[in-house]
Every structure is written in C-alpha cells, then in structure tokens.
Amino acid sequence: MPEQQSRADAEGSHLRIVIAEDSPTQAAFLEHSFVRKGCSVTVARDGCEALAAVRAELPDLLVSDVIMPVMDGYALCRAVKSDPATAGVRVVLATQMTDCADILRGMAAGADDFLSKPYDAADLDSRVFNARRFEDSVDGDIVLEYRGGEHVFGGDLARHVNFMLSALEEAEKRLRLQRESEQRTNLLLNSMVEGLAVHEVIVDESGSAIDYRFLDVNSAFEALTGLKAGDVVGRTVLEVLPETEPFWIEQYGRVALTGEPVQFEHYARSFGRQYKVSAYCPEKGRFATVFTDITDRKLAEETLRRSEQNLNLSVGRVGTWNWDLATDALEWSPRAKTMFGLPEDAKITHESFLAALHPEDRDGADAAIKEALAGKTDCDMEYRAVWPDGTVRWIYDLGRAYEDATGTLVRMAGSMLDITDRKLSEEESRAMAADLVRSNAELEKFAYIASHDLQEPLRMVASYTQLLQRRYKGKLDADADEFIEYAVDGATRMQTLINELLAYSRVGTQGAPLVSTDLEPVLTTVLKMLQTTLADAGAVVTHDPMPTVTCDGLQIGRVFQNLIANAAKFRTDQAPLIHIGATRSDGEWVFSVEDNGIGIEAAYFERIFVIFQRLQSRADYPGTGMGLAICYRIIERHGGRIWVESEPGKGSTFWFTLPDEKEG
C-alpha cells in the first residue's frame, strides 16, 4: 500500500487538471484532493467556462460534473473529444451513474472514465492517478444493443474497456455496500424487541382491500405471534389466519392505499392478545407494521382500575380512629361514630369505646388491644357494637401501634368497617346448612324406615299372588290369568323399587370408609357380574387401565355397574360399543363410560339424575329410574361430580370425578 500511494503521488505531481463543477463544496473537495497530490488545478463553474479552460491550457485531465447549467458534462465531453486540438485530453465524468443507459451515454460522448458521487478517495486514486493503460484498438465502430436500441461507439477499444471496467468496479462496490447495508439492517431488525412485518395489500376490482400478503418478518414477530417466518412469508393473512377480523384488513388497506400512517391498540382474537400497532406506507400498495404485546399491561391497568373502583367504594364506608397514647386522647372520624350510632360531636374515650361493645366481646377486644401494644403488632378483631337505642352492629377493626425515633409507642391508629350484612349472611348460611343436614338425615331415616317396614307386607302380597299364579294359571278364564299376572308384576316391581330406595337412603349412612382402592379389580368384578347381560346385548367392552383412588370400592363398583348396564340397555340396532376411560387432570381422576346407544336430549341432562325419573317407557326399557340417582348420591358422597354429554342417535358419555389421592 505505501508503494501504491507513492506511485500515485508521483504520477499526480505533474498532472494539469481542469475541474468542471457547479457545486462549490464538491469543487473545493476535488481541488484540495488534487492539489494535495501536487497537481496544477483550474476550477470552472459550468461547461462553457471549462471548455474555454481546456482549449487554453490543454490539460492532462478534465474532471467534469454531468449535470451543470449552460452546458452539461456530456456536451462538454463531446466538444473536447471532437476538437483535434483537445481530443487527447483525458475526460472523467463525475456523476451518480448507476443505470446502464447512463454508462452507455457517457461512453458515446467519448468519456475515458467516470467518478461516482459522493467522491471517494480510493476512486480518485484508481480512476485519476492509477488509470489503466491499454494500447489495443479496433477498426471501425463498436455497436452495442441495449433495451431495443443500438449504441455506436468509435473504435477506441482501450477507452471503452477502461470505461466498462470502471462501471463494473462501481457496480461491485455498490452491490457490496448494499449487502453490507442489508446485513446491518437485518441485524438491527432482528435485534428489535418490537415485532416488524412488511406486507403488500390485495385489492378487489373496485380497489378495496380484501387481504394482504406477508413479505418479510423479524424475529420479534415470531416471538410475539408464535408464527414462523417460513410459514407466513409469501402467503396472505387469510390463508394463514382465516379467522382474521375485517378490522385489520381495513386499517392496513387504508394505510397502503392512502399512504397515511396509523397507530392504534386492538385485541387480536387469532392470538388472544392485545397489541399496540404502528403502521406506515413505505411505497404505494405496501405497508409495514411495528407492534408490541401490551396484554399484560392492559390486564394490569384493568386490575388497577377495578382496585381503584373498589377502593373508592370502600373509602366511603370506612371509619378511622387515632389514639394518642401519651395524652389518652381518642379521635374518631364521623363515619366511625356513625357505626356506633353516635352523633358527630360525641366525645370518645378508650373506656367509652369498650363500654359500647357487646358484653360478650368486651374482654376479647380489650385483650387484643393490649396484646398489640405489648407486642407492637397489628390489632385485628371483630366485635359487636351496641348502639344507644339497643341496635347491634358487627364491626371489623384493624389497628396498628406506632413508635417514635426512640422506640417508644406514641400512638395507635386504625380503621373500622361495618360487616353486619356479611355476618347475617354467614349466620343464614350456617342455619341453612344445619337445616339441610337435619332434613337430609330425616329424609334418609324416613326412606330407610319406609322401605324397611314395607318389605314384610309386600313380601306377603308377592308370595300369595305368586301362589295364585302357580296354582290357578290356566284353570280360570283368560281375564283371571291376566289379572293375576298384573298383580305379580306389580308386587315384583314394588319390591325392586323399595330395594332401590333403601340403597339410595343407605349411600350416606351405611357406606364403607373411604380407603385407598385399586379400581382395576373392582371393574373386573363388575364386568363378570354383567357378563350375561353384555353377552345377550352383543356388547363389546374396552377400558383404560384403572388407577388407585381413595373411595368406597363397593359404591364405586355400583356406579360402574349402573352406567355399563345402561350403556348395554339403551342401545340401537347396532351392537353396543362401550369404553370405560380414566384420565388424571388438575388434582382429580376423571372417569368416563362412553357408548354408541340411542343418546339423550340436552333438555334431560339434569333430570335423569333425579329419583324415579324415566325418559323411555317401561315396556321398551325396563327399570326403576333409580340407578342414576344412586350414582349421583355416591359420587356426591366422594366429593366428586357426575354429568353426561350426549346427542340423540349418537350415543352418550357419562363422566364422573374422584379426588386424586396423590394430590394435597
């Protein structure tokens, strides 16, 4: 490099140069660069002035701007090259030529080389001081075809090759700079925390936006949307996200077609997120978006807004107090006095406060205050305030002791809230719960007694009607046989109902303890018990592996038995396909019994779990209507839930849950 620099300095030391440049700044830069190399420089401000200088001085080099007043660089070059006296002057055009047409025009004008603006010191060395030397020439003209036209040049091959090499160097330099710029841009875009995407809008025949296509996205776009660049670039938004709301297409279409930027915040259903978006138009028909996910911020703002609302509502209901421990002065706000049924001008002392409390709460409140003062902790208490007229109100009181710089307690302050409504509600709930427990107990006792006491007379009726049937069937007339059959069937069904009612009443009173139970053998036993029923129905039964849970194995077996038997009973013309499933989810086991039977209408989903409720006639599907009610009671006893999902003609799935013994 030092040798090249020395050679350039040596070659520049004897050059005479004319500069044709109408920009004083550009002219000064060139002049300084050439003079620093030891050149003799003349500066002309337009083409005519430069041509006169060339004819007068016959310089070694003319460096001319292309765009100048009076005479541009092309005309100046042609004038110099067409005059035999100046044709030997080397001409370098200074311009921003990047198009082939510009290059061909410079060659046709006779230019030897060109410089690219803005000027670069390396270009000055290579194009001016280290110019290429060629001795070859050709006979006749050189004809180039470009964009449907012919361009004719003189036979000076060296000049043309030199010019084209300069053009190639310039193109390579610009390409390199463009790639470097693109790399820097891509690095910048992919380092952004904001999502960025470039799109082109798609319009219909009327020119209205109907869709848009992804052209490019950055890494943050992928992170904020979950969409990968390879899955979206080149595709339209309705291809990628068919459920896209019209709002987005309308907003972005307006930007791309009018050029007016927009900024907005909107919820995107496709992603279930809230975004802040800025969109602008880099060129007609296209738009770019820069966006951030503001979902968490919006949720925080909404939480804060609700908290402020609750605070505003609460402040009006809260009373405050301040107790000066040094002077024993106790100050209450008007709202605090109202809670005790006192006028605003009432004087309050610690003793009068305690005296206003319900006798059963007085000692507890006094002890809580003393404990807070001794331990320098908060005083958190609930008590009943007795008004002067005898009204009793429940108060929640929270106080705190404060000390001075020396650690001495100086005051205690706090706030009060009337919680009478909450206390009354809690009392009502407790009373209702107690009534419900008592009512259930009485109902279970009644059901047990009723079913148990009915057994003996019913057995007698059933026995004698069956005896009549055996002894006199076929000996009396047909009506008598039919009447006896009705009596036997009625007595049998009544026995079954009483037994089912007895089982229903015993679910909560005579069940076994809930212990860890492997349900695999429980289900195996149930399937063996139903073997004949399933075989007669042609049923195919499959099941998942059963877990170990805390339960009453006999009762859960009863649930499986009832549900599987129903699946086999309520079938269509097709063979029943029954599957028993078990999955673990959110701290519980979820069991299912799925079939391909007749199905159930949604209107009856709750009714089927009520005792004695039937959806089909007894003639078509025999039964008591108690099975699902018993299942409901059993699952309720185990702290689970039971429900059904079904469509008529498409089968049913009965679900029930049991707590997972591994949780907690």
Keywords:
single chain, 5-stranded parallel β-sheet, 5-stranded antiparallel β-sheet, 24 strands
Give a brief outline of the structure.
With 664 residues, the protein is α+β, with helices and mostly antiparallel strands.
Topology:
Blueprint: H1 2-12, E1 16-20, H2 24-36, E2 40-44, H3 47-57, E3 61-65, H4 73-82, E4 90-95, H5 100-108, E5 113-116, H6 121-129, E6 142-146, E7 149-153, H7 157-190, E8 195-203, E9 209-217, H8 219-225, H9 229-232, H10 237-240, H11 246-258, E10 262-268, E11 273-280, E12 286-293, H12 295-315, E13 318-324, E14 329-332, H13 334-339, H14 350-355, H15 359-375, E15 379-386, E16 392-403, E17 409-418, H16 420-472, H17 478-506, E18 515-518, H18 519-529, H19 531-537, E19 540-543, E20 548-551, H20 553-569, E21 577-585, E22 588-594, H21 627-637, E23 642-646, E24 652-659
Parallel strand pairs: 1-2, 1-3, 3-4, 4-5, 19-21
Antiparallel strand pairs: 6-7, 8-9, 8-12, 10-11, 11-12, 13-14, 13-17, 15-16, 16-17, 18-20, 21-22, 22-24, 23-24
Description:
The structure is a single chain. This protein is of the alpha+beta class. Helices cover 46% and strands 24% of the residues. The strands form six sheets. A five-stranded parallel sheet has the order 2-1-3-4-5, sandwiched between helices. The longest helix has 53 residues, at 420-472.
Computed over alpha carbons, the radius of gyration is: 49 Å
The order of strands across the largest sheet is 2-1-3-4-5
* Fraction in beta strands: 15-25%
Instruction: Describe the sheet with the most strands.
Output: 5 strands, parallel
Figure out the total of helices: 21
Morphology: elongated
Task: Catalogue the unreliable spans.
Answer: 1-12, 132-138, 143-148
The structure class reads: alpha+beta
State the total count of DSSP E strands.
Answer: 24
Mean pLDDT: 81
User: What helical percentage do the residues reach?
Assistant: 40-55%
Report, as a whole number of angstroms, the end-to-end distance.
79 Å
